[in-house]
Amino acid sequence: MLKKYFKIFILALILVVVTELIGQKKIKLGPGYLVFLPMLYALVIGIIISLPKLKIMSEDEMKLSNDIMGIVVILFVAKIGATMGPSIVMLVKSGWALCFQELGHFLGTVILGLPIALLLGLKREAVGATFSIDREPNIAIIAEKYGMDSPEGRGVMGIYICGTLFGAIYIGLLAGYIGSVKIFNPLALAMGSGVGSGSMMAAASGAITAVFPAKAKEIASFAAASNLITTIVGIYFTLFVSLPVANKLYGWLEPKIGRNSKKRGEI
């Protein structure tokens, strides 16, 4: 039974040793700096060694790795939950701030993302791509309402795949850089890192912690609470607010700014 996992465990061990030896690196960029953590190196190297052309890992081994990830995520969530306990009073005091951070996801995806998607030439795919950050619960909403073979289904899956491949790397670098500028309170940044994805939250909160090590426990607590709220409340918010607004906004903006709009061509 363990033989089929042996190669995966050895590769994982090598990745951990190599990335930890590289260690944390900071590169100066303008007023702040990019923070490169071992987790980011591991993600990049993991993507490379899983390329089919290299034949380092088989498809079956990749599926097994995915199963192992489920167990690892459970352990990670348990650790975060234990961290949240001692900070529960502080979390309750920040209740409204944690709740209202959900509006940031709405403004960033629908209000900003949809017009850009239309300018790039997307049609109904833009609705699926920008009504949320497109993680698993959001895919279920689109699948139930439109079906996965629809333009909306293609849009949501496109962003989901991009987020899976590059999301943690992108948000980790972004969070570390914004944190290094030290304009925002680290706890506000921690709230913002809870986007509804465990891997993205871990990457973002890890980068913020690297900049503010003295507030490591508070950052982990706020990030976890924010992520939990986004996962639970976000489902209803995207279903009853974001998706209807995205549809309305699409109907209004597409004739005006859509790249291949017939109405735009007639004007």
TrEMBL record:
Organism lineage reads as: Bacteria, Bacillati, Bacillota, Clostridia, Eubacteriales
Give the protein name, as stated in the record.
Answer: DUF3100 domain-containing protein
Q: Which UniProt keywords apply?
A: Membrane, Transmembrane, Transmembrane helix
Q: Which domain of life is it from?
A: Bacteria
What Pfam families does the record point to? DUF3100 (PF11299)
Coiled-coil positions: none
Tell whether Nucleus is among the UniProt keywords: no
Give the stretches traversing the membrane: 33-51, 71-91, 103-122, 155-178, 190-212, 219-243
